[in-house]
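Q: What residues go here?
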C-alpha cells in the first residue's frame, strides 16, 4: 500500500478545510487535503456573514472570490405579515467588514479549493477517509479512492473539516446530540424573474410564515434565487404530494412569496435536509482538531455555518502552527472556549427566533438605534465582541429586552384605553 508523509492532513475541501490548509501552508508546513467528492459539488449554505471575510482574507482567498462576481450582500431583512425589519451591516456596532457575498456553494467552494491548490496544497478528490490510527499525536490515516485503491497518509496533525461527514466524531464514537429540536428544510433554486418586485438582491430575506416556520430567500448574481422552507417535520407532514407539489403549495400558502414565485421555474427538483444539528463534547484531542460543521452546526436561520467554519479554522490553524513549532497550546482555553463562545451566542439567537422572542424585538416600531446596531453586529457574525452586551449577555439580554418591549406596549395600550 502506498504511504505518504505530511505535516498536516486536512479532511474535507469545504470552507473549513481550505481556510485551515491555506493558513498552515503559508506558515511553511506540508499540507494535504483529502476530499470525498469531485468538485464542483452541491452543498447548502449560500449566505455568508461579514465576519467570515477576515478569515477568507487571511487565507488569501478574497481576490479569487471577487473575480467570480458573486452577489454582494449588505444586510438581512426579516418579514412577518406586513412588518419588515431591515438590518444594514454598515450600521453594525462592532468595527470590521460590513459586507460579504451570497454564493452558489458549488462555485464558491471550488474557487477556494482551486486557490489553495494553486498555492501548492495538493487536493485529492474522490478520496475518502476510512480509518485513522493515532500513536500519540502522530497518526496514520487510511484513504480510499473512487476505484477502491487504498493508501495511507502519515501526519503530525489532522484538521477534521469534513462537515456533515463528521469523520473523527464518527470513527471514535464522539457523537453527541445537539440540544436543538430536529428541523427539516425543503429548498430549491428558482429562476427569479420577478425579483424587481422586492428590495433585492443585495440582502437575504427571512420570512416568518408561522410560529417555528420560516422561508429563506437568497438572491444570486445570476438571476437565480435560493428559496427554502424550514420548520418542524410535522409541519411539512400536513402537505401531501411530491416534494415539488409540497414546495409549490408552500409558495402559494405564504402571501410574501405567492406573487413573486408563482409558477416559478425551478433549477433543480426541491431537496430535503433534516436533523442536521449534532456536536461532540470536545473539539480537539491528541493530534487532531475539529473545525467547521464538525464542531456543531445549529440552524440555518442566521447564516452562521460558513462563518463559524471559517473562523474556527482560522483559530485552529494558528494553534496547529504553534504546536508544530513545539510551543505549548492550551486547546481548552485557546480553541474550545472561543469556538463555543461563538456557537453559544448564535444558539441563544436561534432559540430566541423559534420561541418568538426575536419577533417581539425585530418587529417593534421605532427600535432603539444603539440596540439595533448591537443586534446587527451579531447578525453580521461578530459574536466574539464582549463590548457588545448582546454578545456578552447573549442568553439573557434578548429575553429581558423582549419583556421590556411587551410591558411598555401593555402599559401604552392600557393608558390609551383610559
Ligand atoms: P462542508 O462545506 O460540508 O465541507 C465538508 C467537506 O468534507 C465536504 O466537501 C465533504 O465531501 C468532505 N468529506 C466528508 N466526509 C469525508 C470523508 N470521509 N473523507 C474526505 N472528505 C470528506 N451556512 C451558512 O453560512 N449560510 C447559510 O445560508 C446556510 N444555510 C443552510 C441551510 C441548511 C438547510 C443547512 C442544513 C445548513 C445551512 N448552512 C448555512 C450551514 C452550511 O451548510 C455549513 O455550515 C457549511 O457548509 C460548513 O462548512 P464546512 O467546511 O464545515 O463543511
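A:
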Amino acid at each position: 500500500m502506498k504511504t505518504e508523509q505530511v505535516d498536516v492532513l486536512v479532511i474535507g475541501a469545504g470552507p473549513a478545510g481550505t481556510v485551515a490548509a491555506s493558513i498552515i501552508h503559508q506558515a511553511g508546513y506540508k499540507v494535504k487535503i483529502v476530499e470525498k467528492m469531485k468538485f464542483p459539488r452541491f452543498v447548502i449554505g449560500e449566505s455568508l456573514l461579514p465576519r467570515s471575510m477576515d478569515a477568507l482574507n487571511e487565507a488569501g482567498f478574497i481576490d479569487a472570490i471577487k473575480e467570480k462576481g458573486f452577489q454582494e450582500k449588505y444586510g438581512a431583512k426579516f418579514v412577518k405579515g406586513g412588518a419588515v425589519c431591515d438590518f444594514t451591516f454598515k450600521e453594525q456596532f462592532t468595527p470590521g467588514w460590513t459586507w460579504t457575498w451570497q454564493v452558489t456553494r458549488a462555485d464558491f467552494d471550488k474557487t477556494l479549493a482551486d486557490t489553495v491548490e494553486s498555492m501548492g496544497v495538493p487536493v485529492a478528490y474522490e478520496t475518502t477517509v476510512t480509518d485513522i490510527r493515532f500513536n500519540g499525536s502522530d497518526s496514520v490515516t487510511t484513504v480510499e479512492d473512487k476505484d477502491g485503491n487504498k493508501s495511507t497518509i502519515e501526519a503530525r496533525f489532522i484538521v477534521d473539516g469534513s462537515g456533515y461527514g463528521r469523520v473523527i466524531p464518527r470513527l471514535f464514537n464522539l457523537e453527541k446530540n445537539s440540544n436543538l429540536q430536529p428541523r427539516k428544510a425543503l429548498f430549491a433554486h428558482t429562476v427569479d424573474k420577478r425579483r424587481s418586485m422586492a428590495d433585492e438582491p443585495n440582502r437575504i430575506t427571512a420570512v416568518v410564515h408561522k410560529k417555528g416556520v420560516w422561508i429563506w430567500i437568497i438572491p444570486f448574481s445570476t438571476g437565480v434565487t435560493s428559496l427554502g422552507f424550514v420548520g418542524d417535520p410535522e409541519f411539512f407532514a400536513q402537505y401531501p404530494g411530491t416534494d415539488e407539489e409540497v414546495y409549490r403549495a408552500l409558495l402559494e400558502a405564504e402571501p410574501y412569496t405567492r406573487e413573486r414565485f408563482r409558477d416559478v421555474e425551478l433549477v433543480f427538483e426541491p431537496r430535503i435536509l433534516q436533523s442536521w444539528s449534532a456536536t461532540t463534547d470536545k473539539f480537539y484531542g491528541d493530534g487532531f482538531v475539529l473545525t467547521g460543521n464538525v464542531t456543531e452546526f445549529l440552524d440555518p436561520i442566521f447564516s452562521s455555518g460558513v462563518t463559524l467554519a471559517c473562523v474556527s479554522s482560522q483559530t485552529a490553524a494558528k494553534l496547529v502552527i504553534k504546536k508544530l513549532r513545539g510551543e505549548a497550546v492550551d486547546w481548552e482555553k485557546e480553541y474550545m472556549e472561543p469556538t463555543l463562545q461563538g456557537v453559544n451566542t448564535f444558539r441563544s439567537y436561534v432559540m430566541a427566533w423559534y420561541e418568538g422572542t426575536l419577533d417581539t424585538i425585530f418587529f417593534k416600531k421605532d427600535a432603539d438605534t444603539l440596540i439595533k446596531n448591537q443586534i446587527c453586529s451579531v447578525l453580521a457574525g461578530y459574536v466574539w465582541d464582549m463590548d457588545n452586551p448582546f454578545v456578552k449577555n447573549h442568553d439573557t439580554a434578548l429575553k429581558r429586552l423582549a419583556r421590556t418591549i411587551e410591558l411598555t406596549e401593555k402599559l401604552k395600550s392600557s393608558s390609551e384605553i383610559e
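A: Context that may help when evaluating the design: The pocket of flavin-adenine dinucleotide is lined by residues 11-17, 34-37, 43-48, 128-129, 161-165, 167, 185, 273, 276, 292-293, 297, 300, 303, 305-307, 309 (CB under 6 Å). The chain has a mean pLDDT of 96.
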